[in-house]
């Protein structure tokens, strides 16, 4: 029997059937409905080691956070070797640290660009040698009561480490190095320093920060995981275009992806298969709290309930000592 339907109607039927097949394929390839959560829980990224915490409400880039710390519950100061060691001992799988170049060509591990907030010095890290920075008291400016008392004053002399000291203290532990500027020369200097490490050590080091310095590190040390805003945008835009097929764009290979909690559900195959896909491309996925604003972390028991079931990537926390015991491994 001859099909008497008009050709346009048959064509519309074929197009509709293909559309249904594509939608079905995309759904089946990315749904988590049939994925059972495994025994492995999330891993933990300790921001600046074990640190003094503070409210992030109203914090801007020029806010002196040492002047608004919470009442101290421990004696550690951020970005120091003791604080990093305490973080690993508490259960951190990865520790983040900040670096700045010094006048004599080294890298100081310190958060702020300027010294006036936390220390008894003035100027910037770039103004001083590493020896001069070590003579400063990095606990000088911390106060939890508006300046009436300074619980760490006098206790931080000699505690600002160089990057070399951190690498020597933690020869195998995973480290995430934050470049605090957008200076490509800083990226070149950091790449030169890290190039002296052997291949097995570089596997456990990642670098993130401004587009310009990170681009230089990525070009000179392509085996290191890297992240900048530009790398993130490039990777995720391409992934949103093709991720429904299960493919991972080349732009996402060997990266450090810090995914804001508010954006994560829009990613294809989030959470477990997304993490698996990125890990297969040599990349690490870190979930940060909220919209990814000023160092937002999963820092309370309530916040941990928002970590999606089946997520096996890394979780950013500012309170590693309190959070680690609450995470099922």
Automatic annotation (TrEMBL):
GO terms for molecular function: phosphoric diester hydrolase activity. The keyword Cytoplasm does not apply. Keywords: Signal. Transmembrane segments: none annotated. It comes from the Bacteria. SUPFAM superfamilies: PLC-like phosphodiesterases (SSF51695). Residues 1-28 form the signal peptide. Residues 58-327 form the GP-PDE domain. The keyword Coiled coil does not apply. InterPro entries: GP_PDE_dom, PLC-like_Pdiesterase_TIM-brl. GO terms for biological process: lipid metabolic process. CDD domains: GDPD_GDE4_like_1. PANTHER family: GLYCEROPHOSPHORYL DIESTER PHOSPHODIESTERASE (PTHR43805), GP-PDE DOMAIN-CONTAINING PROTEIN (PTHR43805:SF1). This is Glycerophosphoryl diester phosphodiesterase. It comes from Saccharopolyspora antimicrobica.
């Amino acid at each position: 029997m001859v099909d008497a339907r008009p050709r346009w109607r048959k064509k519309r039927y074929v197009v509709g059937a293909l559309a249904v097949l594509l939608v079905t394929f995309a759904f089946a390839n990315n749904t988590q409905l049939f994925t059972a959560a495994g025994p492995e829980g999330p891993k933990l990224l300790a921001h600046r080691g074990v640190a003094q915490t503070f409210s992030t409400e109203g914090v801007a880039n020029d806010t002196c956070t040492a002047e608004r710390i919470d009442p101290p519950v421990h004696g550690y100061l951020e970005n120091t070797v003791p604080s990093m060691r305490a973080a690993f001992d508490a259960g951190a799988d990865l520790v983040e640290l900040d670096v700045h170049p010094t006048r004599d060509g080294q890298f100081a591990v310190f958060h702020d660009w300027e010294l006036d907030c936390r220390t008894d010095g003035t100027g910037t890290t770039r103004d001083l040698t590493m020896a001069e920075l070590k003579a400063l008291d990095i606990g000088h400016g911390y106060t939890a009561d508006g300046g009436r008392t300074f619980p760490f004053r006098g206790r931080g002399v000699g505690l600002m480490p160089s990057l070399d000291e951190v690498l020597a203290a933690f020869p195998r532990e995973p480290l995430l190095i934050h470049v605090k500027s957008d200076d490509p020369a800083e990226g070149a200097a950091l790449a030169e320093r890290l190039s002296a490490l052997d291949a097995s050590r570089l596997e456990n080091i990642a670098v993130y920060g401004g587009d310009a310095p990170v681009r230089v590190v990525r070009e000179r040390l392509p085996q290191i995981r890297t992240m900048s805003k530009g790398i993130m945008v490039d990777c995720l835009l391409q992934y949103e275009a093709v991720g429904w097929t299960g493919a991972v764009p080349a732009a996402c290979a060997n990266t450090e992806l810090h995914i804001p909690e508010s954006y994560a559900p829009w990613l294809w195959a989030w959470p477990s298969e997304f993490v698996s896909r990125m890990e297969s491309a040599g990349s690490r996925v870190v979930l940060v709290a909220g919209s990814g604003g000023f160092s937002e972390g999963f820092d309370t028991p309530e916040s941990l309930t928002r970590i999606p079931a089946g997520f096996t990537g890394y979780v950013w926390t500012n309170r590693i000592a309190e959070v680690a015991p609450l995470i099922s491994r």
